[in-house]
Amino acid sequence: MKKLTLKAITLAAMTTFASFNVEAASTKDGTPATTEVVSKEDQLMERLQEIDEMDKSELNRKEKKELRKEVRGIKKELKAEQRGPGLYISGGALLLAIVLLLVLL
Questions:
Q1: Taking a C-beta distance cutoff of 8 angstroms, is the pair 44, 76 a contact?
Q2: Where on the phi/psi map is residue 40: left (φ > 0), alpha (ψ -120 to 50), or beta?
Q3: Closest by CA position to 44, among listed 80, 65, 71
């Protein structure tokens, strides 16, 4: 009986703390959210290409530094969009939660 209860609690804890990817299906006006992401992504990529094609030899030190910051910001934003929204629970956190549940219950 104890093993059955322990297995039931473990199963409940595992399903409770499962990681799910949550994403909005559409925006407020009903258009798909993916078209906005793609267009923004295209704009950022175009800006990166513009910066890459610029003649940087005529720029002074401060302007070059600003361009580098802009490029880093754009790349960071692109990475964040590729990752996508969602909530992720690490294995260690899940294990800790299960152990705490077992000890407390």
A1: no
A2: alpha
A3: 71
In 3D space, the residue among 33, 36, 15, 16 whose CA is nearest the CA of residue 24 turns out to be 33
Q: Which residues contact 81 (CB under 8 A, 6 or more apart)?
A: 37, 40, 41
pLDDT digits 0-9 by tens, 23-40 = 555 556 655 555 555 578
Name the strand (E) or helix (H) holding 65: helix 61-83
CA pair distance 67, 56, nearest whole angstrom: 9
pTM for this predicted structure: 0.46
Structure tokens at 83: 């990752």
DSSP helix/strand/coil, 24:
coil
Place of tokens 């939660």: 97
Q: Are 3 and 87 in contact (CB under 8 A)?
A: no
The pLDDT of residue 19 is above 60? no
At 32 the three-state DSSP class reads strand
